[in-house]
Amino acid sequence: MALVPCQVLRVAILLSYCSILCNYKAIEMPSHQTYGGSWKFLTFIDLVIQAVFFGICVLTDLSSLLTRGSGNQEQERQLKKLISLRDWMLAVLAFPVGVFVVAVFWIIYAYDREMIYPKLLDNFIPGWLNHGMHTTVLPFILIEMRTSHHAYPSRSSGLAAICTFSVGYILWVCWVHHVTGMWVYPFLEHIGPGARIFFFGSTTILMNFLYLLGEVLNSYIWDTQRSMEEEKEKPKLE
User: Fold this and answer.
1) Rounded to whole angstroms, what are the CA distances from 61 to 68, 90, 92?
2) Which residues contact residue 22 at a Cβ distance below 8 angstroms, ignoring those fewer than 6 apart?
3) Are 56 and 85 in contact (CB under 8 A)?
4) Residue 177: CB partners within 8 Å, gap ≥ 6?
5) What is the pLDDT of residue 231?
6) CB contact at 8 A, 117 and 105
7) Which helix H or strand E contains 134, and what residues bound it?
8) How far apart are alpha carbons 36 and 95 in whole angstroms?
9) What sections of the protein cross the membrane (predicted)?
10) Residue 235 neighbours by CB under 8 Å, 6+ apart
11) How many Cα atoms within 13 Å fall on the side-chain side of residue 166?
12) Which of 18, 21, 107, 215 is least buried, going by the fewest C-beta atoms within 10 A?
């Protein structure tokens, strides 16, 4: 039996994301006042995705609790739709985008922080908030994947969805540059057009890889769990 019920964990994670978002939006940074506001940053978009996802998880838990034993077919139908939406969001957005933000941010930060998170930002964003945006996303999504089985969509539709998201965000970044004359991320100012095309193409490929990684990880976790349960059942059957 789990030390903390998964339903309680989801509520705690949702509240933490709400706190992070509120604290982030309360910061008066110059970049928040320019074209696109916070929505031009993938980190902020990811925080919204994670908050919405865990909100759906909590709503699913509440709906499951309310419909348990009711025998109401309409309520059960609505619950199945919620579960499908929850699973789709984890597969297509929450896992690949969340892992991408954590991995790419810290890799570039380790190479040269000025390229992704200039030291100037330390005057606006406290360290705990930085980790809330760029670190805790990974353990939170892994906890969710470990505590509940999620049915992935067909591989073709899943990859098409994550490709659409990736290309859509790249076009948005390019549009912000077209309007303002400045790139959202400082390192894009220091590389040529060819390198930018290569970078954008590489990020799209990485997003697709992370989608596949999530699919494999989900299957591995729950196939292993199933095998362990079957092993436990064998002595009883004998």
Assistant:
1) 11, 15, 21
2) none
3) yes
4) 183, 184, 188
5) 57
6) yes
7) helix 127-134
8) 25
9) 42-67, 88-108, 128-145, 157-178, 198-222
10) none
11) 25
12) 107
Q: Which two tokens stand for residue 30?
A: 């110059």
Taking the C-alpha atoms of residue 25 and residue 160, their distance in angstroms, rounded to an integer, is 32
Which tokens in the block code for residue 12?
Answer: 């705690």
Whether the CB-CB separation of 141 and 214 falls below 8 Å is answered with no
CA distance 207 to 135: 18
Q: Average pLDDT, stretch 138-158?
A: 93
DSSP one-letter string for 7-53: HHHHHHHHHHHHHHHHHHHHS--HHHHSTTGGGG-HHHHHHHHHHHH
Percent of the chain topping pLDDT 70: 91
Helix/strand/coil (H/E/C) assignment for every residue in 138-193: HHHHHHHHHHCCCCCCCHHHHHHHHHHHHHHHHHHHHHHHHHHCCCCCHHHHHCCH
* Distance separating alpha carbons of residues 99 and 96, to the nearest angstrom: 5
**Which position has the token pair 């040529």?**
192
